[in-house]
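Running this now, will post back.
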Amino acid sequence: MGGMAGIGGIGELGELADDRVLLGRTSTAERVADILRTRIAEGFFPPGTRLSEDSIGGALGVSRNTLREAFRLLTHERLLVHELNRGVFVRVLAVEDVADIYRTRRLVECAVVHALGEPPFDVDGLLAAVEEGRQAAAAEDWRGVSTANIHFHRELVALAGSARTDELMRGVLAELRLAFHIVDDPRGLHEPYLVRNQEILDALLAGERETAERLLAGYLDDSRTRVAAAYAKAVDEPDRAEA
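Update: finished.
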């Protein structure tokens, strides 16, 4: 795939070194994994990138053993893959993975909305995410729109008040962003869902849980079709160019 490259020089990791302060006094593998997970989700390490232990460990100021444990955690979350005698790489999803991620999202997100109980619902987080997306679109920051969309759905799941569900969706949505980073038309991919997020929010504000659930199910079905098709095209074109 044309866009896949290794992370070589430490200069490329200067921004990552700024995250060292997030580690605090206890440089645990979990905190390192949190930083790398965020950076992967943001596209700082694109799919197919080889992660250098020396460069990343130096940028974050952590030991090789700590970094390897963080890599192990993220491999378990399906964000990284370890290739024998080659190293650790940011995972490149298969098209089937994208469809499976959406099946998981539909099961979890619709179940959360279905079980909300009686209104009013605590939608402050959803309101903030919708406004975040609106501002990003006004600035034509389509990656920012994607981030706001992820925030919307994390906040939606957070309505369940379950740390386990939050953790599950954090991994699922981070994995989904591996697909987003390969698609060439982020505006076409993300812009239509600004309106649909607002519609779901409006239904919840009105206390119409069943309407919100129906809108969400349609949203996720349509998004699965669009994202899977766009991703399949994106991963197929480089392969044909190299043939």
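The first strand starts at residue 50 and ends at 51. More later if anyone needs it.
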